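Section: Multi-chain targets

For targets with more than one molecule, the full set of components is provided together so that the structure can be written out for the assembly as a whole rather than chain by chain. Components appear in the order listed by the source. The example entry contains two components.
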Amino acid sequence: MIVYRRTEGVIDGVRWAADEMGEASQSYRQTWALTMQGGQAPMVRHGSEHMRTVRMIKNGRLGMAASRLDGWDSLLREARDALRHGVDVAMDVSEILGGRMVPLVSHWDPDWLSVMDATVRAVYEGLQGLSPDFRPVVTVTYHEDTVEMVTSRGGRGAWMRGYWELTAGGRQVDGTDFHGISGTRLSGHAIPNGQKLLDELQARFQWGCSQSVIQSGQYPVVFLPPVAMGLLTPVLARLSGPALVAGNSPWEDQLGRPVLSAALSVMSDAALPEGPRSGPFDDEGTPTANHALIAQGVLKHFILDRDASRRLGYEPKGMGYRGTLNGPIQSAPANLTVEPGSSTWSELLGRFPSVLILNGWIGGRPTNPMRGDIAGNASDLYWAENGTVMGRVKNAVISVNAFDALREQLVDVGNDPQWIAQGMMQIAPGKVPPILIDQVDVAVKQ
Amino acid sequence: MPQNHVADDGVLATLQTLAMRDDVDELEIRLEINETTQIDTLHNRITRQIHNVDVGGNVRVLLHGVYGFVHFDGWDNLGDHVNEAIMLAASGYGVRTAGRTSDVSGVRLIQRLAFKENPLAISLEAKGAVLLHYADVARSAHPTIKSVSTRYFDRYRHLWFVNNRGSAIEQEKLDLGGNIVVVARDRQGVAQRGVSFGSSNDFGVVRSLEDEVHAAALTAASLLDAPEIAGGEYTVVVDPHLAGVFAHEAFGHLSEADGQVGDPGLLAQMYLGRHFGPANLHIYDTGRDAGSRGYLPVDDEGVVAQDVDLIKDGVLVGRLHSRETASRFGESPTGNARALHYRFPPIVRMRNTVIGPGDTTFEDLFQGIAKGIYAKGSLGGQTNGELFTFLAAEAYLIEDGQVTRPLRNAVLTGNVFSTLANITAVGNDFTRYESGGGCGKAGQMPLPVSHHAPSLRIERCLVGGRGR
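Its structure, encoded as tokens over all components, is:
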């Protein structure tokens, strides 16, 4: 049996000098996962991490120390030493107002291992049934982070974030044609419904069992949530601290002005129950709230951590997060959400006599985020006529400028958002609906 | 080959005692100390300066066809971690399959780093000063240069590995890299170009980059008013850097046996003896190229590195293995099982993936191209096995065999199998290129890899773009 106990209280023993400003935090990360992949041995994993970090500010310089093992005295000493050659900062530290006190108790229950096992096996076997040559891969993971923090301003708090992630997919190779599908579901307090994900994947596999041939040209394209999230990457880059501090963002003087289509509202939402980053504080101890970044196309807020906020003259809004437990704080939204529209799936497809549906985009990321140009090989593209999916389209490159697409070319926003997990290419988890973009350039190799 | 320079300090002996369990099929224990330095700069100031020491480890157990894997911080309670890994493997009762790994004999060695210039002996201040100097060089190169950001990292790893097959290995590793990104901006828009560097034994690669940084700044400025490429099929000449990324993305990943095992459709394509590309195409993967970021004399399953020919004389001749995949194919492990660090299990990864030199001169690569693209450098690439995409850092139009003008947003893409068949010339300008990026797979990113190559000419390459 796995026994997970936390006996530590809130951080104790951290003393600041009168002329010091600082924060001390410790984070615990626990992860349990089970993976089945065709042709390989299944794996059951448990990881535990513990990180202590001290950030100290004195005379506008930052001294930082982090360790997985060292005690507070050692870290404080190291941070003070680091002040001598520390980087210039404008940040301050949080008062951590409004938090509740520990102890917090892990939600992990060892009995979940058998539920994870049954879920993975059911989805795996369902995918195996698609075709004798289909090679499935299914993983279910439970993530749980606990953060404790004290600051020199008397701030004191602890909070916990936890969520489930079910990913499934696979491929069938026939000649040099790779017919792949994949999907992810997140949830807050229970393993996501495997049957729902399986149903969706089975339907998508059927879409692709026949192929459609199209010519190069401009088409309306429904960007399904995984690629719609990719379209937002340049938007996040223009909104975020590093570009603004560097003077690289063309939106630096656009607050209150329209920058995207009025059909688009983008938020940093820290309150969604199933959100991976939902919680009362960000990773700097700044209280979180829901902030409209773009409301009906109008720029409302930038994405700034404490340092970028102070440099640019704004109040911190709780948008400083670490990408990894030992990584630096970055300007990033909590959970990035796009407000759903009112159109159902069939209404989206019905807006044009024929549309393309894009769900996978190899290399679909901007060559220059500030400019927004994106082009990628469509790995998961379908052709629909009169609202009916006719088949899979191969050998097509989709090219857009994200800002043009989300400003002038946007036609409609779907009413069915899905969670996209934070990944190697994106700085935040997101809940995004399908987005219909017109006049998208498609180059096809015949 | 790794050399045994010093005596065991006792850690290995302790771990070996813990690993001697007869109630499991396989058991590995890994402990690590990782020391990381990272410096970021923007304009003329240091924006981030990090020095971290991670201490931790993992236990991997194979029991009745199920892996149990536990990772942890610190080195306490190792016996408990071994027991937990066994318990996790046993808990996978419902997903049990026939698991097996290749039976390799125990490897016992202790390997120390052989530095050219040791980055650990250089102060943070001195490292930061080098980066800020390059920012000065770039800013003074052209008035449109609005920002220069740099990133430097070095990671020293000290590892102890044992398994229940008698392996006991102590290793030191170094990975060093970074980049200098120059952004030009005017009323036309924004353009950027970068200089990248990397090594596994030498801080010297960070020095003397002034000429490259100056050239990058001028290139960024020249790209400001470049028109966007018109999408379509072109004959493309790619420089050695981009050719190396091509070898990695388009073919290297396809050669990783964990992507082939259990996939009868793919194995019907990737059978040894199949013809791929021109007769002088030679692609191989090696962990024995000291100094390259892909240097890996012993992998993370304790297997000594093998050079692996993937394509030789245009014919598919090999693939990359872990112990598990080697066993399933009835082939020998190749030393390609790698883990980013102790918080991940080893999976099949490339090391230094190389295209051997050909015999076509650089000038001849362009002969007869009425309209094509010359693509230089890489901003990254991606593959799903069948398809690949590269983002070229620079692109130029080729007209009647001559490079004429710059273009922007060059995304080269295609089908792996048909593109390999469309390589019509391999240059004689073989170049060792080490970048500061890395490879991502299964959430393990950035893993240090290298790719060395000559220029290539590829016919009918699909290029994305919105230009007209």
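Chain A touches chain B through 80 residues (CB under 8 Å).
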